[in-house]
Amino acid sequence: MERAAGRRKAKPEQRGQEARGERDAPAPKRRLSAEDRRQEILTKSIEYFSKVGFGGGTRDLARHLGTTQPLLYRYFPNKDALIQEIYKVVFLDQWKPSWDALLTDRSRPLRARLQDFYEAYTDTILTPLWIRIYFFAGLKGEHINERYITLVEERLLSRIIREFHVEQGLEPPETIGNRDLEIAWNLQSGIFYYGVRKYIYHARTFLPKNEMISCALDLFFGGYAEILAQRRCEARAVAPPPAKPRTRSPRKTGPA
Prior knowledge:
By secondary structure, the chain is an all-alpha fold. It has 11 helices and no strands. The longest helix has 30 residues, at 209-238. It is elongated. The relative contact order is 0.07. Residues 57-76 bind DNA.
């Protein structure tokens, strides 16, 4: 009888434990569609490679994803295909079409256009993930950097040079010279290195980002305007003097 009573008293406690166990049990995972699963793999792969670099193998990547290599290869046939998709998502898709219109809108001063552009552009690229992916790709020898540098030169730096010439009242060059490209790269890399100091070296920055951009543009506009003025002076100095018009001496006529 006592044992039976003990068992009867234990039943409510057991029921409570069972109830708590049911509440503590994890909810079943929602089954993802193929597109959602692919996007999840891509997002976590970007996170993984930004931490370990592109030398990380697919086996460790699958472990990081909480999945298997066969499932990973179902969505991306090989590692190179995955890296190419990362390039598209992290670099190509981040370039906004509105930036093209902004850079070439001659109804506004170029200085104001570039301030607005670089504020928006750096909001996109000056992040720990973006910068780490960019550097790891370069160290591994992936072609991501080469392709992105080409994009920057064609869609940004060449436009800056041409728009600067137009604003100075000069004919924009059809082909951008090496010296001009390096001058534009000085502007671009100075702004980019602000993010490197902040997110890679964790070093102190001395100005808010927008003020830093303004300082960089001041240096670029002052320096490049002086360089173009010097070129004009040099071109005038070496130009041959205009040829004097030939005057015909009057013909002598003899007596009729």
